Amino acid sequence: MTKGITLVILCMAAITGFSPNRSAVAAEAPYKRTVESLSMPDVVLVNQKGEKVRFKTLVESGKPVVVDFIYATCTTICPILSAGFTNLQRKQGVDSAKFQLISITIDPENDSPPVLTEYLERYQARPGWDFLTGSRADINKVMNSFGAFFPNKMSHRPYNFIRTNDQGKWVKLDGMIGGRDLLNEIEKVGVK
Amino acid sequence: MRENVLLSNRITLWRVALLFLATLFVQPPGSLAAQDISDLAPAEIIRLGEQMYLKGLLPSGKPMQAYVSGDIPMEGTSFTCVSCHLHSGIGSFEANIATPPTNGRILYQERKPYIKGFENVPSYHRYASYFPVRPAYTDETLAALITTGFDPTGRSVLKVMPRYDLDDRDTAIMIAYLKSLSDQFSPGVSENEIKFATVIVEGVDPAAVAAMLLPLENQINRKNSQALTYQSSPRLARMANNVMGPDLGAKKFSLARWVLKGAPETWRAQLDAYYRAEPVFALLGGISDGEWEPVHRFCEENRIPDLLPQTDYPVLSNSDWYTLYFSRGVRQEGEAAARYLHSMYDLFAGRAVVQVVRDGRVGKALGEGFREVWATTGHPAPVEIVLPEGEALSGERLRQIVAEHKPAALLLWDDATVLAALEGLPDQAGRPGMVIASSSYLGKEMWNISESLRDLLYLTYPFRLPQEEGRFDVALKGVLAGKNPSDYDQKILRRSYIVGELLSKSLVQMRGEYYRDYLLDVVGMMADSVFPLYERLGFGPGQRYASKGCFIVQLGKGANPQLERRSEWVTQ
Predict the structure, then answer these.
(1) Which part of chain B has CATH 3.40.50.2300?
(2) Structural domain of residue A99, as residue ranges?
């Protein structure tokens, strides 16, 4: 056991560089990983620019896709999920356009395109991360298609969905996943 | 300062190791707390601390530097303390995720796996047990948490809370601010009483005032009756303690009427005088036929919540905090019309959209709402025609407008006198495919739209359809006991009923933490609720307008027509 502690200390010391201003290792929270067969609804949503977006076309464009469900004024789950997307785009650098990040609002009453734009700016989103809104009925269809129906925005859960190369198969990650884990999960489904 | 409740089960030895590292390799904590900020006046320390907490700006005015997930650099303006811990610092809840309190009073107490006074209340007991136990913070350990992300047990919170690059002086200012946050109960609350007031602008129809007051006073009386009952029985008192919190069941409620007279410019002095004479915890409802802004400003500057005043002209602001409105007012109907037309714009084939606006407060609000949303959806500005006050739109003038512009859609923001001018329009060549008017502006005359106009005329309707509202009559029964329902304006009555219900639920959820900011935080965290009148009503953290929707409807056929829905509640 003592050996384990020593190892932890050595690893931490190496990573932090003995400085408070260098990165520290985040403790890893558990998350649940499952593979789901999902069928996407053919609905038209609206992106942050106010443009109509055929949802099915966007998610089935051939690019790897990561989807999460958030809303703009959320104070608990969404900032963490969105920081994960920010991290993902930063880590991928110029390659971030190789995959499509999609955030879908669960509060379409409040989240109009200008609100979505402001949110993406706050998280320093790059091209390749779209935030979608729409009518309540269409948003409900999308939530239901992912098995992630939240009748109320205050009762939603931290889900990330990654589309795999296997037709109709998605990896569902349930939990407050860290940036490194999310990157690993994406790499597992074939995005480098 | 955000901790993930899911991280509670760490292995002790790993904790020890991390704590060891945190204390060994980070900046010596003693120097952070020892920083002398006594050169700053106490009020200045609070102002600077609040600036960091709310806006993420250092005392220098530069953005705080935050590191998210340990190593992702972000400006602190994106990850402010208030984003998660909320204005009061009491923290937030959402589903099974909770953000713990960050006010000094709680931080500097040891956290035990229960909340004193709530040991037998399952829901609140669960709240406490979500968070891992920890010793009381000291200035040193709190400084270490903020700047390194490790708490006094050595537990990392970096996955869910940024760490902030603050120098010793700025850290000391932040800590001083946290100590002041939600430290003393807000004015208007004493051990035995909570005081509220409602603002009534002189000149409002007395029947409307009566409809506004009835549900509020009913709620206050009901609460006070409960208190009497609970005080008479120890068993009921224990029950009240469990259900309503440690002292809410015993507190006496009062509701003062603050009547504002004369010109709006004089209201501020009247409000100040009322408040000086009797400070209240919050304003409930209130009613005005016109202006509300002086009351809004009074609340903002004195940090007094106002729950849902009845006004067609709320103050629209993305940053003001203390007044919660039912909606964006009559203007919201203009905005809804723009979104509805946007959804079918492809069918317009380049034809114009014409907006006819009555030169008055209602017409202008509707016109502005339409114009603004229409512009954000990227369409060319509508053709605008202003009708002078007091000059009715004639049928001939309307025919000229249509003949000149051949619009795809015509918006008529006018009162019911416009209906006569519309009579010949259905037969006119090149007429628009649809005409949209405001149900609020037409008033009860909307039910008298002639059969010949009903296919052409669409209405903005910002409420649940009347034929679907009957199920809420039961909820109002208690309020109307012994009264004649037809004596009361149903919309005003129902809105006021919502205020009472919202207050009641919020106070229970506040668990005895009587801070004005916490009242607003709690309302923001409440689930969208099924209430009378509005199809969907809810806030969300920081949101200030509860109802965001509006139906587009048409009047059905027959002598007793119903409204027929032509759109969803929300169209983007």
Answers:
(1) 193-327+469-530, 331-461+552-565
(2) 29-188
Sort B321 into a burial class: Cβ within 10 Å, 0-12 / 13-18 / 19+. middle
Q: How far apart are CA A122 and CA A120, in angstroms?
A: 5
Query: Total domain count for chain A?
Result: 1
Residue B52 carries which DSSP code?
A: I
B63 chain-A contacts, CB cut-off 8 A:
none
CB of A179 closer than 8 Å to CB of A157:
no
Compute the C-alpha angle A91/A97/A102, nearest 5°.
90
* DSSP for residue B560: S
Burial class (CB in 10 A: 0-12, 13-18, 19+), B217: middle
Note whether B149 contacts A: Cβ–Cβ < 8 A: yes
At B314, the amino acid letter reads: P
B193-327+469-530 architecture in CATH? 3-Layer(aba) Sandwich (3.40)
pTM higher than 0.80, yes or no? yes
Q: What is the pLDDT of residues B386-412, one digit of tens each?
A: 999 989 999 999 999 999 999 999 999
Q: Name the residue type at position B459.
A: L
- In this prediction, the answer to ipTM > 0.85 reads no
Q: What does the pLDDT look like over B248-275, one tens digit per residue?
A: 888 899 999 999 999 999 999 999 999 9
CATH of the domain at A57: 3.40.30.10
Mutate to test the interface with B, among A109, A131, A152 (most CBs of B within 10 A): A109
A120 belongs to a structural domain: yes
Where does residue B68 fall: left (phi above 0), alpha (psi -120 to 50 degrees), or beta otherwise? beta
Q: Which of residues 50-109 of A touch B (CB under 8 A)?
A: 50, 71, 73-77, 79-80, 83-84, 86-87, 90, 107-109
Task: Mutate one of A12, A75, A112 to test the B interface: name it (highest B CB count within 10 A).
Answer: A75
Angle at B6 between CA A192 and CA B8, to 5 degrees: 125
Torsion angle (degrees, nearest 10) of CA B280, B285, B290, B292: 40
> Is B21's CB within 8 Å of A16's CB?
yes
Tokens in use for B295? 């009351």
Architecture of B331-461+552-565 per CATH? Answer: 3-Layer(aba) Sandwich (3.40)
d(C-alpha B500, C-alpha B528), whole Å = 16
Asked whether the beta carbons of residue B7 and residue A27 sit closer than 8 angstroms, the reply is yes
Is residue A74 one of the residues assigned to a domain?
A: yes
Check B528 against A154: CB less than 8 A apart.
Answer: yes
In DSSP notation, chain A reads -HHHHHHHHHHHHHHHTT-TTS--PPPPPP-EEEEEE------EEE-TTS-EEEHHHHHTSSS-EEEEEE-TT-SSHHHHHHHHHHHHHHHHGGGGGGSEEEEEES-TTT--HHHHHHHHHHTT--TTEEEEB--HHHHHHHHHHTT---SSGGG---EEEEE-SSTTEEEEEES---HHHHHHHHHHTT--
Rounded to a whole number of angstroms, the distance between the first and last alpha carbons of chain A is 36
- Residue A58 forms part of a structural domain: yes
Q: pLDDT-derived band of residue B3, with 50, 70 and 90 as boundaries?
A: very low
User: Which chain B residues touch A124 with a CB distance below 8 Å?
Assistant: 74, 78
Q: Is A177 part of a structural domain of the chain?
A: yes
Distance of alpha carbon B253 from alpha carbon B221, whole angstroms: 8
